[in-house]
Amino acid sequence: MISGIPLWLVGFGTSGPITGSLAALWQAYIGKVTAGNLFATLQAWAMVGAPVAVGVALLLAVLSGVTGVAVAAVELVRG
């Protein structure tokens, strides 16, 4: 286990979501965080450490999802 460095890159800090980060934006969007959901799991791993492979895989999944949402938003705006 290592510290949540990959998770830190998207804003999951050792004390909670980092202000102004993607994680903070995600938390604001979902509202109440329930135990066991993906957000809670990622935050917990950032706080206590996560296996490197899992952290990297989840970081890539989150980034690809964000990219997909951004592309869809641009296409929606373009019409």
TrEMBL record:
InterPro entries: IFI6/IFI27-like, IFI6/IFI27-like_sf. It is a multi-pass membrane protein. The chain crosses the membrane at residues 7-30, 50-74. It is found in: Membrane. Keywords: Membrane, Transmembrane, Transmembrane helix. Pfam families: Ifi-6-16. GO terms for cellular component: membrane. Belongs to the IFI6/IFI27 family. This is Similar to similar to An08g11220 [Aspergillus kawachii IFO 4308] acc. no. GAA93195. It comes from Pyronema omphalodes (strain CBS 100304) (Pyronema confluens).
